[in-house]
Design goal:
This protein is an alpha/beta fold and about 200 residues long. Helices cover about 35% and strands about 15% of the residues. It contains eight helices and six strands. A six-stranded mixed β-sheet has the order 3-2-1-4-5-6. α7 crosses α8. About 40% of the residues are buried.
Length: about 200
């Protein structure tokens, strides 16, 4: 369902799919590649979550600086599927939903390997946090979740993981959205009520 069709549907009844990628990093002259994808989907904003994640194959080694952040090494990706091969699963999880990401430019960029995929509209929780929580020095996903007091909820949903794990971050983005919609009493408001955070165009800034 496209954004113009969702605009009149209350947020509580829209499907949402939060997505996050972790990347290999790139040395000069290389193109960055995803090494992990995580998705959490709910059929209504406060419905039961469906969780899915996968490591992804790469054509060049994971850069040491990226591995230091997310802990994923080249050796861990041996035998992993390609992102292209996972398109049926990605389409199933993201199709017909508002796609959620925190500073979602990376997610939009990596999904361009599926030309004309038709996914979206997109909702950027970084933009939403900046609008609804002005004056903060740090708008990273972990910092926003900590400020809202929901970090323990994310850990409970995805035990044994941490920030910069793709599934953990996807759940974190969804929980930030859920918290802010509740706090602002927007459960019965349309998607358009989230304003600048909703993006139909090809890039998230």
């Amino acid at each position: 369902m496209r954004g113009d069709m969702m605009n009149g549907t209350p947020l509580s009844r829209c499907a949402f799919a939060a997505i996050d990628f972790e990347s290999a990093g790139a040395a000069p002259g290389e193109t960055d590649q995803p090494v992990q994808i995580g998705v959490v989907r709910v059929e209504g904003l406060f419905g039961a979550p469906r969780l899915w994640d996968s490591y992804l194959s790469v054509s060049h080694p994971v850069h040491w600086a990226a591995a230091k952040v997310h802990g994923i090494t080249t050796e861990m990706l041996v035998g992993a599927p390609s992102l292209l091969s996972l398109w049926p699963r990605v389409r199933e999880l993201l199709g017909g939903a508002v796609v959620v990401g925190h500073h979602c430019s990376t997610e939009r960029r990596f999904l361009r390997c599926f030309p004309g995929h038709g996914l979206g509209p997109w909702l950027d929780t970084l933009t939403l946090a900046r609008v609804t929580m002005p004056g903060r020095k740090d708008y990273s996903l972990g910092a926003v979740a900590e400020a809202l007091g929901i970090t323990s909820d994310v850990r409970q949903c995805v035990p044994g993981r941490r920030w910069h794990d793709a599934l953990f971050d996807a759940v974190g983005s969804l929980f930030v959205l859920q918290f802010l919609v509740r706090a602002l009493d927007l459960r019965e408001a349309p998607l358009s009520a989230l304003g600048k955070a909703v993006k139909e165009n090809d890039t998230c800034q």
